[in-house]
Write a structure and sequence with these properties.
Elements (H helix, E strand, L loop, with lengths): L1 H25 L16 E6 L1 H4 L9 H11 L5 E6 L5 H13 L4 E5 L2 H5 L4 H17 L3 E5 L9 H18 L3 E2 L22 H23 L3
Parallel strand pairs: 1-2, 1-3, 3-4, 4-5
Helix pairs in contact: 3-8, 4-6, 6-7
């Protein structure tokens, strides 16, 4: 009888606990840095999936963290925020746009779609999601750098070709700086990827950060009026 009396309370406590766990697991986290009120630098948000989050490496080895280090060394006064969420698809990214805009970014580096492709999702839906993300970012006055992706050949010639050209078409449509292939020089390298063959090592992310920097710097120079 006593156990029955406490069951509703136990169920209530369990419900609260599960809700808290869900929030902690599912809420995106930013790259560690000063509180927004204390850092007046304009912001670059790295918006993506596990390749942006830096799955499998320490926080300071992810590409956004290494990009911050390179920008600091080159005296570009921007703060890089890591908005990568492991496992995210373009649909998940679309739902997170308000959170990204809440960071008040000047520039967003958009790296999404790889998980869509690996799951064989509809390319029409992937494009529609990216379309909406880009529209919302541009409507908010945010500059966007688009990171292109490619798929392994075992997904079929037509699907892989259409997947790759999807990014080229979006970059042309929205007049965006395009990184043709985010993992250029890193994909399929046993020494630059972790044991899963998908996620880069620290050294792999170093190469990615340099590639992002090459596309990003002209935009930063344009923003600051630097010759």
């Amino acid at each position: 009888m006593k156990l029955q009396r406490f069951m509703p309370r136990l169920q209530h406590i369990s419900s609260i606990f599960l809700t808290v766990v869900f929030i902690l697991v599912c809420t995106p986290t930013s790259f560690a840095g000063p509180a927004s009120g204390q850092d007046p630098r304009p912001r670059i948000v790295a918006f993506g999936d596990s390749l942006t989050a830096g799955l499998g490496v320490s926080a300071d080895e992810s590409y956004p963290a290494q990009l911050q280090q390179r920008l600091d060394a080159l005296r570009y006064h921007y703060r890089v925020i890591n908005a990568g969420v492991s496992g995210d698809t373009t649909a998940g990214g679309l739902r997170r746009v308000p959170w990204v805009l809440n960071s008040k970014p000047d520039i967003v580096i958009l790296e999404l779609g790889g998980n869509d492709g690996l799951r064989g999702l509809s390319l029409d839906q992937t494009r529609s999601n990216l379309d909406q993300i880009l529209q919302r970012l541009q409507q908010a006055g945010v500059k966007v750098v688009l990171a292109g992706m490619k798929l392994p050949p075992n997904y079929g010639n037509e699907y892989t070709a259409d997947f790759e050209t999807l990014y080229q078409a979006l970059a042309k449509q929205y007049r965006l700086p395009l990184i043709p292939f985010f993992l250029e020089g890193v994909a399929a390298s046993a020494t630059l990827n972790q044991a899963d063959g998908i996620h880069p090592t620290k050294e792999g992310y170093t190469i990615i950060a340099e590639q992002v920097l090459k596309t990003l710097c002209p935009l930063l120079d344009q923003q600051t009026g630097k010759p």
